[in-house]
Amino acid sequence: MNTSYDILGVAPSADEAQLRAAYKKLAAKYYSASDSASLEKMKAIDAAYDELIRQRKTGAPEPKATVSEFADVRRLITSCRLSDAEEILDSVRSLARGGEWNYLKALVLFKRGLLSEALVYIKRALEKDDLSSEFNELYDRIGRASRDNNSPGLFKAIRNLISGLR
Question: What Å distances lie between residue 15 and 53, 54, 136, 158, CA to CA?
């Protein structure tokens, strides 16, 4: 069985800089490839890196996540096939659009640089599950992007929105 260290090709004694360098090297090799084997390899590389970084910060292994009904959409987003991901998302009935659906829609819009539109969907995702670390991480990314784009009004709106949900 391949461990996260094996997948990244680093020793267990590697520090965070070495982990990051190994991840970047592998991502450069597999990220832009469009074949399914490369996409699966990139997914494994992402998971391995995330697990090792999180373990170093918290000291505990990550619990196994439940399988997402939107796994295909997540893979499409990871491979920057945003139009395909959005097409699948838009085909979901409105009554079935829960927190994860809204999060993924916000992520697609965020990756396209549509910050105010992404804000609408991340708000809905957080209304459904404000404890999700994944949803809160996207909120943080939207906030950083807002500040970087000199949009203090949008960042203030996001901050007010989140504080009102907690």
Answer: 10, 13, 27, 35
SS3 content of the chain, % helix, strand, coil (to 5): 70, 0, 30
Q: Residue 152 — pLDDT band, cuts 50, 70, 90?
A: low
Q: Which residue has the tokens 């439940």?
A: 66
Residue among 70, 141, 110, 74 nearest 162 (CA): 141
For Cα atoms 134, 127, 104, give the angle at the middle one, nearest 5 degrees.
Answer: 45
| Single pTM value for the model | 0.50
